[in-house]
Write a structure and sequence with these properties.
Elements lengths: L12 E6 L5 E7 L2 H8 L8 H9 L2 E6 L3 H15 L14 E5 L8 E4 L8 E6 L2 H14 L7 H6 L5 H4 L13 H15 L3 H17 L3 H18 L12 E8 L5 E9 L2 E10 L7 H12 L9 E4 L7 H10 L4 E3 L3 H15 L7 H12 L8 E10 L2 E11 L2 E2 L5 E4 L9 H15 L6 E5 L2 H14 L7 E5 L12 E3 L14 H35 L6 H11 L2 H6 L2 H4 L7 H20 L1
Parallel strand pairs: 7-10, 10-11, 12-16, 16-17
Antiparallel strand pairs: 1-2, 1-3, 4-5, 4-6, 7-8, 8-9, 12-13, 13-14, 13-15, 17-18
Helix pairs in contact: 3-11, 8-9, 14-15
Amino acid sequence: MDFQSKNYPDTPGVYLMKDAGGRIIYVGKAISLRKRLSSYFRASADHGPKTRALVAKIAHIDFLLVSTEKEALLLEESLIKQHRPRYNIVLRDDKRSLLFRLDKASDFPRLTMTRNVVRDGSVYFGPFASASAARATQKLVGLIFRLRKCSDKMFKNRVRPCLYYQLGQCLAPCVLPVDRAQYHDLVSQVEQFLSGRSRSLVRELGRQMDVAAHDLRYEQAALLRDQIKAIEATLETQASVLRDSLDRDVVSVAQLAEEGLGVGVLFVRGGKLLEQKTYHWPGLGVAEAGDALESFLAQFYGSQRYIPGRVVLSHPPETESLAEVLAERRGGPCRLGPPRGPDERRLMDMAANLARTAHRKDGAQDVSTVLEQALNLPGPPLRVECVDISHLGGSGVRAGLVVFENGQERKEDYRAYSLPAAEGTGDDYAALAQWAERRAGSGPPWPDLLLIDGGRGQLAAVVAALGQALPDMPIECASIAKGPSRRAGELEDRVFRPGRRNPVALKSGSPALLFLQRVRDAAHRFVIGRGRAATRKRSLTGELVSLPGVGPKTVRLLFDHFGSIAAIKAADAQALAQAPGLGAKRAEKLRQALDALAAGGAES
C-alpha cells in the first residue's frame, strides 16, 4: 500500500485495515489517526512478526472519526466483536467464568450459578473457572445454610416440601410459614461466607449458640454448632494472599521465550486467591503490550462480567478512558494501576510467572497451524464453521451450524435454520444451496474455514451458492464424507477441497483429521437434536390444540407462562388460572380435559 499520512486527519478515531479482498483484517483506535497510522509504515518501527505480517497485507484503510478517546475505545471494541479481524486481539475462546448469584430482590432469595452479571440489585460472588469447583462450593453452602433450592416457577407451584427439607437442607418457605426476617439473617450469613468474612461469621454464630444454650433452646444451639464446625473445616483449606478483604484482579503481560506475549490473570476475592486464567497472543512483541492489553481488557470486562473495584496491571493503559468505561459497566468506581505494596507486588510476580506458561496450554493454535498446512489454506483457520442437513423422509428439513474458535466450541454461536423451500424434495444439494444463501445474508463474522458434512457434490453446491451470494468475499471450504462403512468417526473418513478430484491426504488419527471429525460430529449431534426437539414440540403442541376450547393462541399463552408441556400438565386448576387471559372456568375445563387425556394415554 502506498501510504500518505496527509490523507488522514490528526484527530481521534478508529481505523479499519483491509486486505486486497476487502476483508477487514485489523481494527484499531488512536488519539491521532495520522500519527498512529504513520507508525505502522515507519521503517525504523520495532514491530513484532504479527504486525509486520499485517502491514504486508494492508491494501486499504478506512477510518471513522469520533469526538473523544472513550468513544474511540467503545467503537473499537464493538467493531472487533462484529468483524473478528484476523490480526486483532480477540477473545475467541473466552468463556465467562461461573459466578454465584444471590437475588436480593426476592422475598426468599436462593443461590444460583450464572455466567452473566445483570445489574438488577443481585449480589454476585466468584469467579470460578472450574465448574466442578463451583458445584462443590454450592453443595457446601447448601449443607451449611438452609436456603431454598427450587426455581421461582417451581417455588410458586409447589404444594409439599421437597427432599431437601427432609434432609434438613432447606427451610421450605415455598409451603411453610417461614419468618422472612429469620430467612434474611440466613442470607446475610451466606453473603459473609462467600465474601471471605467467614471468621467474623463464626464469631457471630458462636454468640448466637451461647444465647440459645442459655435459653435452653438446645436443638437450635446444636444446629449452630454444626454450622460453625462446617465453616471452620472450610477455613482450614483456604489460604489468604492479602491482609485486606478487597476484591481485585491482577493482570500481567510477559514476553514468551518462543513467540508472542502471554497473559496471566489472578482473581482475588476477600483476600484469597480464587482462580487464575492464561491467554496467548502469538506474534506480538513487548513494545505492543500496552496497546494489546487495553484492547484485551475492554473485551474481557464486558457488561455481563463481574468487575472488581481494583484491577492491578503490569502495563498502564494508554488512556484514562478504559477506567471510565469499566466504572460505567460496574456501576461504581474501578481503579486501574500498577501494584501497590509488597502483597500486590508479590501477586504481580505470580501473575507474570503464570503468563509465561500461557503458550504451553495453547494447543488450539497448533490445531489451526496443522489445518492450514494440511488443507493448503491461506492462513490458520481460527474460526471454523460446520453445516449439516437433517430431514425425515424429506420433511422437517433443517440445517445445523456449529462454530469452533481456536479449537473450542462456541455454543452461543450455534444456529439452526429451517428450510421450508426444501420441504418434500429430499435434495441435500438444494438444501445446502438454500442454507448458503441464508448464511451469506447473515453477515460476519465470516469463517476462516467452512466445513460441510458430505462429499464432493455437497461441497460443490455450497461453493457455487456462496460464490453467487458473496462474489467479493471468498470463503475457504472443505467437506468431510464418511468412509465405506458409513459410520461417523471412522478413521477412513475422507476430506475434499474445491478444485481437487481426490481426497486430501490426511493420515488416520492425525490431529487435523481428528479435529475435523470432532467438528463434523458436533454438527451432526446438534442438527439431529434440534430436529427431534422440533418434532416433539409439534407433537405435544398438537396434542394440546386437540383439546376442547384450546387453540394456537391459548397454547402460546400457556407455553409463555409455564415454559414446558410437562409444567402445563402438572399444574392444577388454580395454577392454570394464573396464566394471562385464561380465567378460573376455562382453567377448570382445561384441567378436566388434561386429566381425561392422561387417563386415555394410560389405558392405551
